[in-house]
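Let us work through a complete example step by step.
Step 1: write down the sequence.
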Amino acid sequence: MTRFSTMTGLIALAAAAVTPGFAQTVADDDVPATSLNIPGNVQLYGDNKPNVYRPSATVNGEIITATDIEQRMALIRIANNNVELPPEEEQRLRNQVFSNLIDEKLQIQEARAADITIDENVVNDQFARLAARFKQTPEQFSAYLASKGSSAAAVKQQIRGEFAWDRLLSRNIQSTTNVSTEEVDLIVKQMEAAKGQDEFHLGEIYLSATPDNIAAVTENARKIIQALQAGGSFAAYARQFSEASTAVVGGDLGWVKGAQLPASMAEAASQMQPGQLVGPIEVPGGISIMLLIDRRQVLTADPRDAVLSLKQISLDFPAGTTPEKASELAGRFASATRTIAGCGAADAVAQQLGATVVSRDNIAMRALPAPLQATLIDLQVGQTTQPFGAANEGISVLVLCGRDMPETATAPNVEQIEQKLLEEKVNKRAQRYLRDLRRDAVIEYS
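Step 2: predict the structure and record it as tokens.
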């Protein structure tokens, strides 16, 4: 399965609440043609009823309506926690959504021309799985989408479209794309030669630019960064705005070494910490926004790969505890837990405090929140973390009872390397395929 898989899109949707890749035409075949001359950037006034169809463009004879665009916009707002965007940013996002809908329409049409059909049972099953991720039934999830200005039909259309495009790529591109043994061997040798060098897990939003428009593109990048810093989903914005092939996977570049990046990106990555957002960065052909997801050293054991044995001591605050009382309890708890000398003493201290103790083994350090990872890396066995928690809930500490470190880092196996190379080749060919579809399309704007 390539990176264009429907499951990839569904996982991204659940992770970002609702990903903006999931709104499409509600019922393409039922929309009547019209001769009204409605400009593409029409300003709407009053209530925008979702069952009122306003044509925006026809793509090879099939209509994209303003309703399609607004339902996609509603999904983006959900993905970004309803963060308020400036009017100019809202309009720019709407234009990008319009462009994406055109691409999706072309992809669906090309799959249909290749006699690729998607079983509706498959679409419904995927929709039910997605609803389950939100801990809702399909009926509840449909109502939730409608309450936010979208619809179940919009999400199902996107699921249908992603399945169709994925199967088309599998038949026309992946089946004729090969990775040679020599290519895999070269990657293995490069990894051995790079042992100990820094490697970065990056997210990227790439915006193409020319010398004539680079100032405007840079300003757009700054607005995207502001929206991300205000709580927007990086994956959601990457899917909408990035012009790189990785847009379909939320801008995820995977693990890369500095030598594989443009010089400006490599320099920035070397100074970034996990979770940091940087940009706009000028790169060949345009502008990039970077998110450092993680970093490590090639084929070198990382302390964060440790497996831990932990005891968690927790003190719940009674209902109605005031902030002042919570602060007092937290101070007493912190003082007492600092005296713990080894896991054997944890239970006695917890009993004195009226706290609970939970013991857990085989905890992957990387599964813990980043702040706790940073603390635990420097702890000796028997020591405690600083207290953490929420003022209206309670407070906890972790006691480190054991740490198992991998002696060596495990290199990707041959199959993983081959799959990665295959995905990269398929993605590049898929982008060219889509560019050809755009070039040959007949698109009429209302």
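Step 3: interpret the result. Residues 1-36, 44-53 have pLDDT under 50 and may be disordered.
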